[in-house]
């Protein structure tokens, strides 16, 4: 399979995962109707990819030129809407789908950045931006502090996944597909292990109490 096809397939998988994630988040944490659920699901799914495409000059973004992006995003959000009455599915699914979207977008974002001629360091950064972009927009819309600012093992796994992808391509472009798979798996495992064992990055020293 061609690298571009792999990147697109990963992109669409990320779109679906983040669409369901965003819609589930709307159901669990807000009181919105079907329009709000669809909107939050679609924005979560497409936000990171749109940011990526605008940064590399791929305009109009793929979300607006490839019919599958919007269709899959809307379909994922609708699936979440119709199964929203199964509470036990919500919280666990939100976390797993967020990790899936994070992983595949980190890889596909890095791959697309490389395809547009970016050097390794910017490609890694853009992979991470692609991964956290949709989730950040989601959190802002529901008035929560974005996960990328509060969870150290959110951006870090994305950076690891993007780095593995980029370094593999730099070593041997023929291994790009395997590098993408390895990067996505590594990102997913780090994120899930962080959630499972409540591991986080070091935080800053708390504020001192004012004197007097």
Features:
mainly alpha, 0% strand, globular, disordered C terminus
The count of helical stretches stands at 9
Query: Average pLDDT across residues?
Result: 89
Q: Roughly how many Å is the radius of gyration? A: 17 Å
What is the molecular shape? globular
* Gap between N and C termini: 68 Å
Would you report the number of β strands? 0
Low-confidence stretches: 207-212
Helicity, as a percent range: over 70%
Taking the sheet with the most strands, its summary is: none
Helix-strand category: mainly alpha
Beta strand %: under 5%
The quaternary organization reads as single chain
Domain Glycine transporter: 9-84, 96-168
Transmembrane segments: 6-27, 34-51, 67-83, 95-115, 121-141, 148-169, 175-193
Protein name: Trimeric intracellular cation channel family protein
Organism: Georgenia ruanii
Helix and strand arrangement:
Layout: H1 3-29, H2 34-56, H3 62-65, H4 67-82, H5 87-115, H6 120-141, H7 147-150, H8 152-171, H9 176-196
Please characterize this protein's 3D structure:
It comes from Georgenia ruanii. InterPro entries: Gly_transporter (IPR005115). The chain crosses the membrane at residues 6-27, 34-51, 67-83, 95-115, 121-141, 148-169, 175-193. The protein is mainly alpha-helical. The protein contains 9 helices and no strands. Helix 2 (34-56) packs antiparallel against helix 6 (120-141) and helix 6 (120-141) packs antiparallel against helix 8 (152-171). Mean pLDDT is 89; it is low at 207-212.
Can you give me a brief rundown of this structure?
The chain has 212 residues and is mainly alpha-helical. 78% of the residues lie in helices and 0% in strands. The chain has one domain (3-196).
